[in-house]
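Hi there. Long-time user, first ticket. I'm pasting a complex I've been working with (about 235 residues overall). I'd like to know whether the download I got is complete or cut off, because the file seemed smaller than I expected. Thanks.
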Amino acid sequence: MLILSRKPGESIIIDGHITVKIMRLEGDVVKVGIEAPIHVPVHRHEVYEEIQKNNQEALAQTVTKLPSLTAKAKPTPPRAVAAKNSSPHAHQH
Amino acid sequence: MNTLEVMPTERHATNDKNVIQLPYGLLGFERVKNYVLLTRPQEEPFMWFQMVGEAKRAFLVVPPHFVLADYRPDLSELDVAFLELNDPSEAFILNIVTLRGPGEATVNLKGPIVINRRTLIGKQIIPVNAAEYAIRHPLPRS
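Hi, the file is complete. Here it is re-exported in full:
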């Protein structure tokens, strides 16, 4: 593993198009800013692994009886969140 | 490990031509990019999100409003742009169900599959507010 020392405000560039910037230190928390092209998915590792594991379990099951469900509500569309100001509405083109 | 092989003949695609494309695949299944959504009336509201090609393996999925009335995943700006969602109503959401035992099942509310109804492009997203939702949200016992 390549280990680099960085100070807040300093950054690392990967493959010429992904920038990882150390934003600030808050106690034992490091705020990291990542700029990557839209086709490069960026996830928190533990959440990514958790979902990956759940997907694998979901596919590895045998079908017994399906649970019974009735609708609890009408579908509600998701919200889109702007990176900085958390607008409750999806952005419009 | 028992692998689910589904595709009884009576199970039919909601529309044969409607292949849903997941350019990133599902997490852990990044190489499988094409899916179809299959339904059987007696299984509603559950549906099967089936890999195209491959070995016809399928995920059991459910629209989240059957599980949690006020489920509202917040999509990041990047995901909205990637999915080319012009309006929230264009987003069709499915959540993966895992059968854990007889009558016992959980649904993943932390990593929904969001599909643009207009383009049929989808992505398994991690919502900005993922921390509010469980990856193993229990379904009522049947």
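A couple of notes from our side: Chain B touches chain A through 70 residues (CB under 8 Å). Chain B has one helix and eleven strands.
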